[in-house]
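quick one before i forget lol
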Amino acid sequence: IASAWKSNCIPGDIYIDSTALAPIPFGSTFKYCTDWCDEQSGPVSHGCRLDKEIRCRCCCGSSPPSPSSPPSGPLPPPFEGRWPQTYEICPDGEEYLNFNHKNGTECIQAPKCEQECKDIGLLMARKECVAGGESYPRPRPRYKWYEQCYCQNPPPPPHPQPPPPPPPRA
């Protein structure tokens, strides 16, 4: 299962955390994660743990990979089991929109949220590109990509300034 919901990347990038359980493809190495991340979208940074399972994590997006490419610190907690697009990104009562994309690159480079919120008279407050699916069988993992949108009412117009006082009469 793969999740792209957690915010472990530069804002605007997609985070993917994939766990592959046995049977792990024979001969898998750390390069497996590099290749897997590269397949998902453009410039990436990545980290991997290979033991009785493969845990890959990637930051995919428009930002160039930094010299310190692999994310530091411990691996994030395991994916909780729900599809990423089921996580609410809006406060209660706010407008939520959800759009399909064919891949992560399209989600980043051809976003729909801003225009769709505008079309219904709202402003985009937040958007997330998320994916869920099966990372096996190789070589073609199957992911469903979604763009989640949080739309909110525009702020009220500023109060008009009172007119300046009339000039003193002479």
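fyi Residues 1-5, 67-79 have pLDDT under 50 and may be disordered.
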